[in-house]
Amino acid sequence: MSQPGGGAPPPTMSMPVVPRPDDDLVTIGVVIDIPQPHSDFLRQCRADFGDPLAAVIPPHITLLPPTLVPQADDQAIEDHLRAVAAVTAPFSITLAGTGSFRPVTPVVFVKLEDGAEHCADLQRLLRTGPLKRTLPFDYHPHITVAHHLDDTAMDRAEAALADYRSTVGLTGLNFYEHGRDGVWQLRRRFAFRADLTSD
User: Fold this and answer.
1) In what side-by-side order are the strands of the sheet with 143-147?
2) Cβ–Cβ contacts within 10 Å for residue 22, how many?
């Protein structure tokens, strides 16, 4: 994940997590990272809005939110992610404009105009087998560009990207684990099947 403005991204991410009660459990997450050059642009925007998390969170779409799993399930989870990626074709999304979860959650995000249904199908497939879980909310794919800022900064973020529009190709899953240092570490990337064609 790059620093704002460019460069090769270090494999770390920081975000709120589910507490880990003991050493037998780890917290994981699965996302689709947004590729370059779109990633650098969105990350720089987040930094410009004054969000310090821009330095440590790459632009991404969450597929599996922070989830506690037994360490003993590690191999089964990797096998599951590999199998899901193997039956998933690369697909494109169209990003268009902004939205907000305010006042419930202080988040401003870039919306998916096209491709949200592909993300929804993919996250449902992921939440099977060793990753079976229910969500406490309706799934809503998005890319966060401002989080926990004051209202003025949040309003500025929502207005600044209101006319933003870009089509982005997505080619794989990224599997993260939350480390003891409080930072998300990239465990592995699982590429989608290049010989499959999406609808």
Assistant:
1) 143-147, 107-114, 91-100, 165-170
2) 6
Q: Strands of 71-116 (E only): list them.
A: 91-100, 107-114
Nearest by Cα to 108 from 66, 166, 28, 50? 50
Average confidence (pLDDT) over 74-84: 97
Cα 9–Cα 12–Cα 16 angle in degrees, nearest 5: 135
* Spatial distance between the Cα atoms of 4 and 40, rounded to a whole number of angstroms: 6
Instruction: Calculate the alpha carbon distances from 46 to 16, 17, 61, 133, 165 in Å.
Output: 17, 21, 15, 31, 16
Residue 196: which pLDDT band, with cuts at 50, 70 and 90? low
Q: Other C-beta atoms within 10 Å of 89: how many?
A: 14
- pLDDT digit string (tens) for 123-171? 999 999 999 999 888 999 999 999 999 999 999 999 999 999 999 999 9
Nearest-angstrom CA–CA distance, 42 and 6: 11
Contact predicate 114/93, CB 8 Å: yes
